[in-house]
Amino acid sequence: MGVLTTGYSITPPLMRKIRADNDNLAFLLGADQETEPIWKTIESYDFDKSFADIIGVLLQCGYRRVYKLLDGEGYFYGENSNYIDYDGYDIWFVTPSKVKFIVDELETVTLAKIKPIEETEPLTDYYNTIIPESLYENYLGYIEDMRRFFKKAAEKGNYLLFAEA
Length: 165
Known about the structure:
The protein is of the alpha+beta class. It has one domain: YfbM-like super family (Hypothetical protein yfbM fold), CATH 3.40.1760.10. It is built from 8 helices and 5 strands, in the order βαααβαααββααβ. A hairpin with a 2-residue loop joins β3 (83-86) and β4 (89-94). α4 packs antiparallel against α5 (64-70) and α7 packs antiparallel against α8. It is elongated.
């Protein structure tokens, strides 16, 4: 079934507030309705249940570093200062310098690159179902939409914060 994932573009001052007190996440995630106006202006991107699928395709196409930076499950194991446990959500973030790196890498994704690096292994989705080539263009569209959101965050020098519920 997958999990619901939302990405947020967070300014450095707001990120400092979140890191200083995780309870500030209530403002971001909508649990606290009496929020300061600044929390209501945060840009977000709702991946719904497609996030793990999209980054999994990126991994299969050779974008290992991008995958590692975006893969929330990688943050859940071991000691990682970019993981925040909050009220049943799994939350992780990517620093502004890494956001820029991700955007630069995603700029190189083309339809010709939406193919598995292991030619003997077919491209598969989150559930390990083979993705037919007729859907590769759809995946490129999802990646381009994601890149546009990330690019706006990078241009502003923002963090990316992801919340899974």
